[in-house]
Write a structure and sequence with these properties.
The protein is mostly helical. Helix content is 41%, strand content 8%.
Length: 120
């Protein structure tokens, strides 16, 4: 592969940046202003970028764990109790699968209309 580049830039993160830089990021992309994981200060833009990168390199199934290791969303003090469903919702929206088909730890994530699942 002649055009393959072994080096790539990291996902731009909000955490640890001065407020002026964060304001500039939000002006360029408002999704940086939506925090998905409060424990690790991970923005919606970071999760979306991770999803895009996973799709670009040919990952067959975008999983919550894949996003966790790329963005650190879900590795905080709450271990994903507050952000896991937000990440699942973003995966559902950007990959185009239903919320029931989002995968975590090699199994589908039981979120959403549970009564529908129980009737099947």
């Amino acid at each position: 592969k002649k055009r393959w580049n072994p080096y790539r830039s990291d996902i731009v993160r909000v955490k640890g940046r001065p407020l002026q830089e964060v304001d500039e990021l939000i002006r360029k992309n408002p999704e940086y202003g939506e925090i998905v994981c409060c424990c690790k200060t991970v923005s919606k833009a970071e999760v979306v970028k991770a999803i895009e990168r996973m799709k670009k390199i040919g990952v067959k199934t975008v999983t919550i764990d894949g996003i966790k290791f790329r963005t650190r969303a879900g590795l905080g003090m709450c271990q994903g109790s507050f952000c896991r469903w937000r990440v699942a919702l973003l995966i559902s929206q950007y990959v185009g699968v239903s919320l029931h088909e989002v995968v975590v730890k090699n199994d589908t994530y039981g979120i959403g209309e549970v009564k529908v699942l129980l009737n099947q």
